[in-house]
Design a protein that fits this description.
Protein name: Mitochondrial transport
CATH superfamily of the largest domain: Mitochondrial carrier domain
Radius of gyration: 23 Å
Strand content: under 5%
Distance between the termini: 30 Å
Order of helices and strands: HHHEEHHHHHHHHHH
CATH architecture of the largest domain: Alpha/alpha barrel
Main location: mitochondrion
GO cellular component, one term: mitochondrial inner membrane
CATH class of the largest domain: Mainly Alpha
Family: Belongs to the mitochondrial carrier (TC 2.A.29) family.
Number of helices: 13
Keywords: Membrane, Mitochondrion, Mitochondrion inner membrane, Repeat, Transmembrane, Transmembrane helix, Transport
Number of domains: 2
Length: 352
């Protein structure tokens, strides 16, 4: 792969990841909270001098039946904010996606749907850029060492890309998770405050909590790209057999729709099979020392919440991942398709 190819794949991966992240951020917030063990801990702030009765009424409307209104000093203003806390020892049952979104908006405001978007945008572009560039370079190398374009090539390439991306960007995702789990309406912490707090309490290594779970999550990446490449190969074979003059360098709108479908199908399969690692990773990144290691977290969640606990937020994840991956993969393929002719002097053709 040439230097120009690497730049094209870096840019395409970054733009694809950014487009998907912006479009699906509210669902990302919901998913993270459902995965966390503190999702049954509903914080409502009514501001200085807020009425506990009003907050109690709001909580009951949202289905938080067992709660206590606890006035807590807000600091310099001399007023009080009101926290609504689920007092059941058992974890509250999961509620639907729409109800989760409604609860976040009513309790914390519309901006809360985009908590963590800053670190997400900071992280998603380099993460996807590193990922796709490493994947493309690794694929070129492994194609020379192993039978060309076979599943083992895709597995090794995806594993290499996942390892590089996880290692380089874990601190960013750690900060993003902490911000998304902050359920305060007033006095929400900023990304810089979060970074400062993590560093003061845990040092640099604190930013790498949950990275073991991320490494286990490479299995999801492998499954995703093996299925994606298989679907692409099947589509290519069908096109070759159905057309007398097939040109792989010519792509139509239909091709990009197929890329979106292939990305959505492959990611759905991968996410479902490897989902428990996401729950473990979120638990490891949240506040507290209850969860200490990957396998200890998986066992503890299974023991306390059953197998359902290992799949909390899966529906939201699938609803989010399908459009996110479809947008990301289609944008990636489109940018590569548009930039390659510009770099190498050819004009992109279209057979629509």
């Amino acid at each position: 792969m040439s230097q120009y190819d690497a730049i094209i794949h870096l840019l395409a991966g970054g733009l694809g990841g950014t487009a998907g992240a912006i479009a699906t951020c509210p669902l990302e917030v919901v998913k993270t909270r459902l995965q966390s063990s503190v999702a049954n801990f509903h914080f409502v702030s009514s501001g200085p001098g807020g009425s506990p009765a009003a907050v109690q009424s709001l909580a009951e409307r949202l289905g938080l039946n067992a709660c206590t209104c606890t006035p807590t000093p807000t600091g310099g203003s001399g007023g009080f904010s009101t926290s609504v806390i689920n007092t059941n020892n058992a974890r509250a049952p999961s509620i639907g996606i729409w109800r989760c979104l409604k609860q976040i908006v009513e309790m914390e405001g519309t901006k809360a749907l985009f908590k963590g978007l800053g670190p997400n945008l900071v992280g998603v572009a380099p993460s996807r850029a590193i990922y796709f560039c490493t994947y493309s370079n690794s694929k070129s190398i492994f194609n020379e060492l192993l039978p060309s374009d076979t599943p083992i090539v895709h597995i090794c390439s995806a594993a290499s890309a996942g390892f590089m991306s996880c290692t380089a960007t874990n601190p960013i995702w750690f900060v993003k998770t902490r911000l998304q789990l902050d359920q305060r309406m007033y006095g929400s912490i900023s990304a810089l405050q979060c970074i400062r707090d993590i560093y003061q309490r845990h040092g640099l290594l604190g930013f790498y909590k949950g990275i073991t779970a991320s490494y286990f999550g490479i299995s999801e990446t492998i499954i995703h790209f093996v299925i994606y490449e298989f679907i692409k190969a099947q589509l290519r074979q069908r096109k070759e057999s159905s057309r007398d003059s097939y040109n792989p360098d010519v792509k139509s709108t239909r091709d990009f729709v197929q890329f979106m479908a292939a990305g959505a199908v492959s990611k759905t399969c991968a996410s479902t099979l490897a989902y428990p690692h996401e729950v473990a990773r979120t638990r490891l990144r949240q506040e507290g020392d209850k969860y200490r290691s990957f396998f200890q977290t998986l066992f503890l969640v299974w023991r306390e919440e059953g197998y359902q606990g290992l799949y909390r937020g899966l529906a939201t994840q699938l609803v989010r991942q399908i459009p996110n991956t479809a947008i990301m993969m289609a944008t990636y393929e489109a940018v590569v398709y548009m930039l390659s002719p510009a770099v190498y002097g050819a004009s992109p053709a279209n057979d629509d």
